[in-house]
Amino acid sequence: MNVSVDLQSYNRVFVDTTALAHNFRLLSSIIPDGIKLLAMVKGDGYGHGMIESAKAFAQAGCTTFGVAELREGVLLRNAGIEGAIFVMVGFIPDQVSHYFTSRLTPVVFSAEAIELLSQTAQQRNTSIDVHLKVDCGMSRLGIQPKDVGGFVRLIESLPGVHLAGMVSHFPASDDVKSGSTGTSYNTFKNACQAVGGQVHVVNHIANSGAVLNFPETLCDMGRAGIALYGYPPSADPADAVVGDECLRPAMRFTTIVVMVKTVAAGTGISYGHTFVTERETKLAVLPVGYEDGYPRCLSNLGEVLIKGKRARILGRVCMNLCMVDISEIDDVKAGDEAVLLGSQGQETITADDIASRAGTISYELLCMLGNNNQRVYTE
Ligand SMILES: *Cc1c(COP(=O)(O)O)cnc(C)c1O
């Protein structure tokens, strides 16, 4: 059955596209002229919506985008995004033609992929620019630095493929004190030297942490993700200050109180009765649970905002519901707004606040909330 309904949920993620554009301009302003800033829009734009986020960044001047998988690149191109779209995580061989039809830029790390791109380019009587990924300390994707020379020769020997860039990734650039960024950067510089100077190759390794903390590693392009969505990778609010301005979180997550009740002292709350009231307690029942990306590990730990005040989660977070303590908040009734992420009145709950309580990082939290709820775009 194919039923399409367009009804609203209680739970909504608001995405402020002006904040996204502001963050792109702010980061661009600290990058020297001539160095590009690629906007990472993988993870459905870190939960903010890949296409809408890319459009907001494009309006702010962005011309280069990054996604994880080929299908995301195709979706982005079909949505009308112009400029370069980098596909970071390879491709399924029988999908290779889409690189050509959607004009995507492959990041390559295997001889098989390079050979297949070369064959396909020849069949189509065209050529394609590839960026070669080197593993400089992340131990994730990428060829070993010692193999760069061989891969460069392979690419040069094959018709239809052209080495346009060298790519790597930092494992710890969110930490200003870590020496690993310097070590990885030296490895990358040396690997890039193996390419030789005949053609101009675009070198890029700097993620948000490096753009903010290690600008000397920018090379020809920065690749920012989390900072564009308003959060510093370190989770330290002080690191959200960039020059004279601040990164602006773009996501807000709200729900509506569905029931208010008062329970007596000694009442167990939610599955397993992991919380038992010590006094008469006023509860608000919220229609939010782990199905909505709100982590169950916030049971007895999370906080929400109601009438501009903090209300603590009591007992376990269920699949679709949780209970919060509103004993100290007057006049709460069904239908009132509750804010799980973002501001209400003078109070703010950030993705880093929630993530630290949940034992995770803002990145994961934004993906979980953003990709499991209805999104509403505001300017
Ligand atoms: C996600 C990602 C980035 C962006 O990282 P942030 O820490 O969000 O800035 C850059 N490069 C690669 C390869 C990535 O996977």
The oligomeric status of these chains comes to single chain
In terms of per-residue confidence, which ranges show pLDDT below 50 for 5 or more consecutive residues?
none
- What would you call the structural class? alpha/beta
Largest sheet report:
10 strands, mixed
Q: Compute the number of strand runs.
A: 22
Q: How much helicity do the residues have?
A: 25-40%
Rounded Rg:
24 Å
Mean pLDDT: 96
For the termini, the CA-CA separation is 36 Å
What are the distinct ligands in this entry? pyridoxal-5'-phosphate
What is the 3D form? Answer: elongated
**Secondary structure tally, helices:** 11
Task: Work out the strand percent.
Answer: 25-35%
What does this entry look like structurally?
It is built from eleven helices and 22 strands. By secondary structure, the protein is of the alpha/beta class. The strands form four sheets. Strands 1, 12, 13, 16, 17, 18, 19, 20, 21 and 22 form a ten-stranded mixed sheet that branches. An eight-stranded parallel barrel has the order 2-3-4-5-6-7-8-9, surrounded by five helices. Helix 1 crosses helix 3 and helix 10 (about 350-360) packs across helix 11 (about 360-370). The two termini are about 35 Å apart. The structure holds pyridoxal-5'-phosphate. Pyridoxal-5'-phosphate binds near residues 169, 223 and 227.
